[in-house]
Fold these 2 entries.
Entry 1:
Amino acid sequence: MPEIVEKEIVCLANSRKMSGRCVAGREIISGKPGPWIRVVSEREDAEIYPHEMRYPEGGMPLPMDIVRVPLLKNSPCSYQVENWLIAPGHPWHKKGALDWMGLQPFIQSPGPVWLTRSYREDTSKIRIQQVKHSPSSLCLIKVYNLRISVVVENNGRCRLLGRFEYCNTSFALWITDPVFESKYLSKPNKDYDLGVCCLTISIGLPYRWGYIYKLIAAIIPKDDRVKELN
């Protein structure tokens, strides 16, 4: 039997990925922020399923939960160096949760170089070559002007787009946070101002023509009040 390694992390994303989820957070070491950990499976797209991460008492990890996660080994994949293989069949345990002030030490300022680099003029994409030597494919940043747009594509599919300014750069990134998708995809197709938020930004799997998308994997608002914008 392989040896199980337990890591205590603050969950900073439980995002939609293919038919399952992508859970990621930063390890807590002696009470301080440690490296990023993305929990992956041995499936083709590395997603994990909800039943694999449910707490024994019910529910599953949400951003800011402090979670004890059973893992097998570090399993880096290309630029996703922080991937760790899940230990199937072993329960996850919630040990507590951070509040807004407790979250602040986990913010990265400035974020990694790949965040502000772009594919041509499109800040939502980046060339794979630009992230090959990055120490992480995840980051947590604070923004002061997050705006969510409900977008209907030509095929009728509704998606959420997050717009914000960071390091004097404008971003418009797709949102894969299922909590906010459930809240906003049924709302009218307009803009919603969330103000100050922390965002977990992830770079996903390679796409066509040698680039990858930057995604908003989690939104952690400072204030739950939302202003609808005309």
Entry 2:
Amino acid sequence: MVERVGIQGAKVKLIVNGVDVAQFFPALEEERTILPSVWQVRAEDFIIGTVGRFWPVKDHANLVLAFAHLIKNIPAGQRLPRLVLVGDGLLRGRLEELIHTLELDHLVWITGWRQDIAQLLRVMDLFVLPSLAEGTPMTILEAMATGLPVVATRVGGVPDLILEGKTGVLVPPANALALAKAMEMLFCDRELAVKFGLCGRENILQNFVIDHMIVSYQTLFQNFLQLKRRR
């Protein structure tokens, strides 16, 4: 607003988005019955997921390619991770073709449009956002409120949300190998993944609670009204 649009700095106030932490919270018990029964998921299985419309800017194809790289690097005999793509949209058909071509049908679940996002997040172990561009994505805030570590592309306002090396990992956009490497690190080091998730939850509680956002808006409007009355 200041640098590009030219609005005076004194007229600009940043109010960060807030999350309803009563709705988005870490899993208290096993909720994985929501996952496809054919997967026969065990408690120790690693579930990677993302939430968003299937649109070019979200770059789900890069996530699928990265997941394919991850699968290739897992030693024979080890339980394979699963990928949950929550959403739908324009590119669903192409994504399904790519998943089939890479022979990942048995490891990837496209959920379609859902209303139970909070529950779906609670069955994940890692949240990934592979976007080419973003503002301040609520999905990252919701994932961190759920206690998930986050791997995301270094675009838009994403670096303002992720404390790199503490709550998640940032990677270049459109780079499947870098994305795969970051996912592999957290897949192999479950303790680190849990630690990132706990730090992310704490970051949300300190800085991104919806009640704080509401108070900030109330204060902004009250100050504006008082200024108008003086005039």
